[in-house]
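User: I'm new to structure prediction. If I give you an amino acid sequence, what do you actually give back? Let's try with this one:
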Amino acid sequence: MATALQVTALTVPSPARPLNGRGSADLDDFQFDRSGPRLVELERPLGRTPGRPLRILVADHHEVVRVGLKSILEGREGWQVVAEAGNGKDAIVQASRANPDVVIVDSALPLVNGVEVARQIRARLPDAEVLIFTAYHSEALVNAALLAGVRAILPKSDAKGNLIAAVESLAARSPFLVGKVSEPLLQAFLSSQSPRATIGLTPREVAVVQLIAEGHSNKEASSILNLSVKTVETHRGAAMRKLGIDSTAALVRYAVRNGLVEA
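Assistant: Good question. You get back a string of structure tokens that encode the predicted 3D arrangement of the chain. For your 263 residues, that looks like this:
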């Protein structure tokens, strides 16, 4: 069973700041020593007025999962699920409308994947904390999530034991990683490397790859992303060249391996 990393309350001496100044996470937000990783409690208040509930958005394409998460979360006094979404585009819209404190997103949301959802929400709502809920443990997913501003990554297999702790940690402005998810970050630190982007793909290329892997045509993807068909074809071709693949089937396999779509 995966064990959550111990949260150690460490004060950052600098004034309140949006993580690394770019609205995304880097290794400065995670403290390590040779005995293991320790998480940082940033000196950045959640921004809630006394007595106001913790506002949470839940985005997962399975309704039964959303219902279960809502039941668990609203079992905590002072927590309220203020919005739900079944796909990535709706999650971004709902976040803009509901202004949540904490956003829980499935990594494999349809239309727009969870990492891109997190990136866009963090850009629009820098005070919102994002938790990626995932069935996958790839290094590429962890790195991309951190670069998007995500500070909590929770495997679905660990949700029962760690969901409440993860949300509590985010409410206190502390990162939260568990088990296998923390390993890529720790390895990156030990080798003095910063988290890397997903195989060098741009966010737009990742979005196109996801939609193609979901079975959408270039024309359908262009409509969803509000791009021309030619631009979609350009992004698709660029992604395939970077990944060294030459077929749609290989593109689908890549998307499944990296948690962009479910198998």
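You can read the tokens as a compact description of the fold. Here is one thing that stands out. The chain has a mean pLDDT of 78.
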